[in-house]
Amino acid sequence: MGTIQVPLPPLSEQHALVAHLDKLAQKTRDLEEHLDAVERDAQNLVRSYIFSPAGATSGKRPMSDLVSLRQPDVVVDATATYRFAGVYSFGRGVFPSAVKSGAEFSYGRLSTVHAGDFIYPKLMAWEGALGVVPKGCDGMVVSPEFPVFSVNAEAVLPEVLDIYFRTPDVWPALAEISGGTNARRRRLQPSTFLSYEMPLPSMAKQIELSAIHRHVEGLKAKHVTIREANAALLPATLERIFHTEPTA
Q1: Looking at the whole model, is its pTM more than 0.70?
Q2: Domain range for residue 154?
């Protein structure tokens, strides 16, 4: 360690460098706060189409009118591998999960999920673990602990279900109808879920909502790119500062 030489600029330049990096870090924080605020405002706008004053919707409809429960359709082969989908808690949606061989779990059957299906884990639905399957998870599987529902798109658009059930204000009601004496082990059974009623905008409003939702999702994708570029900015700046050309 004693032989390593670190190229350091004069102290005055070091102070100027620290000031520059502080400004860069502050701009990064300001940008993150701005992006977060834009996304929150966009989400609130989308949700306002559903959670509007009384009389602005078509009324409440039981989930049995909007979705249909599907039975497990995959017979597990111990020699085969399966790509599972999962659902994050707190409204973060459906995601690609682990790849497992049939010998790694005890379920005899699994359910295939398709883009546009609605799913949730019985055990964690009350904590906001519900959502519509995105295209990236099409064809994956879930265990029987995940009820899988086909969506009646003539009555409700999948985007509307996704927005509604990923809204924190909805989760306490789901917790109330989830059975179990242990608060952390409450389960939302499919039969109970199908009797749950949700406010449903008219189809014309749903189509508008779907268009806004797609715009918001595109905005989020752009923000991800901006955040990635922003995260790489500071390391790149330090690399330029401390980069030295090799000596012959």
Answers
A1: yes
A2: 61-199
